[in-house]
Structure formats: structure tokens, C-alpha cells
Amino acid sequence: MTDHDATTDPSTDPSVDRSAELDALVGEWLSLPDFAEALGTDVGRARSIVQERRVVGMRRGERTTFQVPARFLVPLHLIEPANAKQPSGDGRLGVLASLQGTIAVLTDAGFRDEEIIGWLFRTEEELGESPIDALVKGRKAHVRRIAQSLA
């Protein structure tokens, strides 16, 4: 998890300028308790998922709580789009499986968590859509090729 330095002057902190852009790109965010609830687990397990870097998030909002983009969660039958199963109809969600490896590639390229989120949600010209949309559609190899070229 990335912590926001409480001593940072907001007028010189570049992440302050990006937060409005990220909010517009991401749309819905989930606090850690909401993330846990969406997964049907407890906050401790949700925190482990973040520590394992299966997802990334950032401190944001009025109370600067740690939050994760809601789009990182997909219906359980779609967690591996290439092996999509029949919907169960129970509305259960899981973390998009291809996200963890993509996060690793971007981390290795020197991206901070906020930058990873921005890259995943901005339209990538070569993909013709955002990388998160491409991952949800099962285009993991293409997304990662582009991510590797950023190093």
C-alpha cells in the first residue's frame, strides 16, 4: 500500500492534481471494508489481497482513506475471462485474475500505485480502449506487452 505523507504540502504534491483526474477515470472506489464486503470476506483478508498486490489502491477522499477501484472486481465467473464459466447468478464478485501480473509488470517498470491506476484506466491507443477494459475482455497478453514496453 502507498501511504500519503501527512507532511506533504498539497500545493506542491503532484498527486493532488491527479486525484480529480483519477476520480473521473475510475468512477467508483471502494474503501477497504466495502472491498471486503463485496468479496464476501473480512477486512483482514481484504488487506492481505492488497499486500499481495493482487490489487492496488490509494489514499483518497475527504478522510484520505485507502480505497481500491471497484472495477478491479468482476463477477466470479469472469475472474479469468479466457476461461469464463456460466454465471452463477448469485452476484458474487472476485478480483480480476490478470490484474496481479499486470500490476507486477508496471511496478517493475517503476510505476507507483497511483500511476498504475491511471495507466489501467486511461485509453491506450494501441488497445483502442483502457487496459482494464482489455483485461476484462481477456486480452492479458496484449496489455502486458504494452506494459513491458513502458520500462
Task: Please tell me about this protein's structure.
This protein is α+β, with helices and mostly antiparallel strands and 151 residues long. It has one domain. The protein has seven helices and five strands. It has a three-stranded antiparallel beta sheet. Helix 1 runs parallel beside helix 5 (113-121), helix 2 (32-39) packs across helix 3 (43-51) and helix 4 (98-108) runs parallel beside helix 7.
Global structural class: alpha+beta
**How much helicity do the residues have?**
40-55%
How much of the sequence lies in strands comes to 5-15%
Question: Residue ranges: pLDDT <50 for 5 or more in a row?
Answer: 1-16
Mean pLDDT: 86
Largest sheet: 3 strands, antiparallel
Q: Using only CA atoms, what is the Rg? A: 15 Å
Strand order of the largest sheet: 1-3-2
Question: Termini distance?
Answer: 21 Å
- Give the number of domains: 1
Total number of helical segments?
7
Shape: globular
How many E-type strands?
Answer: 5
What letter string, H or E per element, gives the SSE order? HEHHEEEEHHHH
Task: Break the fold down into its secondary structure elements and pairings.
Layout: H1 14-26, E1 29-31, H2 32-39, H3 43-51, E2 58-60, E3 65-69, E4 73-75, E5 93-95, H4 98-108, H5 113-121, H6 131-136, H7 140-148
Antiparallel strand pairs: 1-3, 2-3, 4-5
Helix pairs in contact: 1-5, 2-3, 4-7
